[in-house]
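Why does this matter for the project? Reviewers at the last site visit asked to see concrete outputs rather than summary tables. In response, this paragraph embeds two records directly. Each consists of the residue sequence and, immediately after it, the corresponding structure tokens. Nothing has been edited or filtered.
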Amino acid sequence: MSEDWNTKYGPRRVRRDPPTLDEAIFAAIGITDDHEQQAEIAASLMGMPYDSVLAEVKKQSRVNARATTRVIAGEQGAQRSVVVERRVLRRFGNDKRTGT
């Protein structure tokens, strides 16, 4: 799907692609937590039948549920936090000069 129009610099074209099914489901997950409503939103974005999209939404939710249940347990089963920090070292160009 493209649309052309003329400008003073010549013809311009805009390409419009519909979202993929995964992108539509990801957007629907961000809007609501209900699977039926997610399927309805994704189906309307894609122009696909509701039943086939609902099956994909349920598959996606099972995969996401497995990925989010990972917990690091410490002593006596208590949860603990893991913090990763990155230290940025800035080097300036004039650091190489000595004796001036």
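We now turn to the second protein, recorded in exactly the same manner.
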Amino acid sequence: MKYYVEVIRQLLKEKCMSQQKLADILGVNQTTVSQWLLGRKKPGYDSIWLLYEKFGIEPNELFGL
């Protein structure tokens, strides 16, 4: 499984947050978040930046680098 999938799942669990709530915070569709969690899409630059800015998730951490 892709590393970012686990990081995003953990974030949702820790914050007791729905996919929709995360999507609203990041300015994307809930479907986009779902696609990330299924490993079909990777977060784009803007979403990666907002994950860092809002939640302190380093881009390297997100991708397991």
